[in-house]
Amino acid sequence: xxxxxxxxxxxxxxxxxxxxxxxxxxxxxxxxxxxxxxxxxxxxxxxxxxxxxxxxxxxxxxxxxxxxxxxxxxxxxxxxxxxxxxxxxxxxxxxxxxxxxxxxxxxxxxxxxxxxxxxxxxxxxxxxxxxxxxxxxxxxxxxxxxxxxxxxxxxxxxxxxxxxxxxxxxxxxxxxxxxxxxxxxxxxxxxxxx
Length: 194
Prior knowledge:
Blueprint: E1 4-10, E2 14-21, E3 28-31, H1 35-48, E4 51-58, H2 65-83, E5 92-99, E6 102-109, E7 115-120, E8 126-127, E9 130-131, H3 134-146, E10 149-155, H4 159-178
Parallel strand pairs: 3-4, 7-10
Antiparallel strand pairs: 1-2, 2-4, 5-6, 6-10, 8-9
């Protein structure tokens, strides 16, 4: 079974192309024009063991909002497509990741119910050219399109460390949730549907 997706989306504000392989080795080629966002997405691929290629051209002359949001939407759509009917996956995953003084905790349910609870308290308005308010917004957009329930919290004194710990904890939680469960047949739900 090949669990991959290729999604393209073009609007007046952005052009986004995402290629995703869930059963990869963590290889990433990310280019959104928002350097720290590229760094976070590369970290997601590495720690989830996803092979991920993202190319986004957005209206960065306005700000980073459309670029970040639309990239997250398409990435979520790609995850949903790659999961297919979600048969035989572990479905749930969780992880705690420290990065120096920062600690992030993430729990996900890949069962098809979109919901996000994000509590990341950034101190500054920006990390590089990424607006910190766009980080939780992107995570919510990703969860909605991916059909996953996402709970993500984190604390830290350094915004870079907090954001990176958060993305790594999401990656590790996803890695466990999307993994194939050799003991399972069918969809992991009492409803027998997503």
